[in-house]
Fold this sequence. Notes:
Layout: H1 3-12, H2 17-26, H3 35-55, H4 63-80, E1 86-87, E2 91-93, H5 104-114, H6 134-144, E3 148-152, H7 155-167, E4 171-175, E5 181-182, E6 186-187, H8 188-195, E7 198-202, H9 210-216, E8 221-227, H10 243-253, E9 257-262, H11 280-285, E10 290-294, E11 305-309, H12 311-318, H13 322-326, H14 330-344, H15 348-351, H16 353-359, H17 362-376, H18 379-383, E12 384-396, E13 399-414, H19 419-427, E14 433-434, E15 436-438, E16 441-445, H20 454-473
Parallel strand pairs: 1-14, 2-12, 4-7, 4-8, 8-9, 9-10
Antiparallel strand pairs: 3-11, 5-6, 10-11, 12-13, 13-16, 15-16
Helix pairs in contact: 3-4, 5-14, 6-14, 7-8, 7-12
Bound molecules: pyridoxal-5'-phosphate.
Amino acid sequence: MSSGNMREDALRSIPSVDLAMRHIEERGLGAVAPRPVVVRAVRRALRGIRETILASGDDAPTRDAMLGRLESEVAALRLAHLNPVINATGILIHTNLGRAPLAPEAVEAARRVGETNSNLEFDLATGARGHRDALVRDSVCELTGAEDALVVNNNAAAVLLALNTLAAGREVIVSRGELIEIGGAFRLPEVFGRAGATMVEVGTTNRTRSVDFERAYCSRTGALMKAHWSNYSIEGFVERVSAGELVELGDRYGIPVINDLGSGALIDSMLLGIPHEETVAESVEAGVAVSTFSGDKLLGGPQCGVVAGRADAIGRMRVNPLMRALRPGKQTLAALQATLTLFLEGDAIERVPVLRMAATPAARVRERAFALMTRAGERLPSLAHADVVESTALMGGGTAPEAGMPSYAIRVAPNSGSAAELARRLRVAERPVVARTAEDAVFLDLRTVRPEDEDEMLAALLGALEKGMDDAAV
Ligand SMILES: *Cc1c(COP(=O)(O)O)cnc(C)c1O
């Protein structure tokens, strides 16, 4: 038979949308997404199959291959949903995994204002229009010593708003050693451009002194800026200008200092077993006009950006028209307020999940790992070589990039199949688990797994391993 005829046959054997949908339903995949979305995926898959056939020479896909492709395109919809996953990576604040898990109080607060109306911009005492961040403002000021505060959608927005408000059409002096890029294409030099400010770089990659800033100062200077290193470190012959030194210079010339703190420590990070991070209070105390930080890093709250600082600077930021585009939603504000309340009540380390995970003694993590192995019983050792090993967890989220914290992981080397395949199966499990792979084993670091998720993680692990045995037997 000529390849032309084979193509014709193959094209004729492409199932209709109706038939394909029936096949999908028989496979139990009909409900992985709303029906119109499933139909859409089926049409897309059928179109793809048609194109493949038209492009192929002698080897048109078999009908089984067509159905397989159909199934995998539809099955992929389940994973495309925003789903809760178990973070077994050992990276506490994992940006790709949604950063900080919220405290139950924060979840409840977001639910309460989400399901009904609220006084978001309504002053209940006077009946007049109010400000959406009035409550949060007092809490941030109390926790940081700032005169005023405001909240935007994330820290990138906070930096953009600060630069635009204080330095649009003017120059901002910043050290060459601090021109950071954060994951997801936040590059400080580009943010300057979008904010309408001109960046003036001073010093060198490893050493910048106060006098470098002073030499670059001129009548066009609008602000001095400092940024946290976040995701890198420079070792060796290093010199940086402190917030205090910049404030001294700024005060002399009457220009504000912007300090992008990144992770936003409200408490001393040494309490969490990692090196000291400049706290927001320290930055405020140094006299910085505007300190910016994320709500979902070390603060352990929802995604947002918080700005704390001097009343004049923050007041100007509040009336910047950009503020309207950057303002956070009511559920974000509710969750942030509830998280700040935990700090104000003095027991954030026990009650804010990210802080609790960091502060858990390594011995306790080890106990949990062994207890989980015990609960796994005989099933686990029959499917894989598994043991408890020391591991190193990281804070993540731009906090102490070099400082590991002692942790423990369950190391699983499957009897059949590769570690990479096991890791993949864990990711596509009913409750996905994201783990680390190394040395042909999967490592499940218990420090970042919530105790209440341990049993589901175990079920996913055993399920993934058993599936491997079945496939190997076929
Ligand atoms: C994380 C970080 C940002 C970006 O914060 P988002 O909340 O992700 O927008 C900006 N600057 C620094 C120094 C950071 O660490």
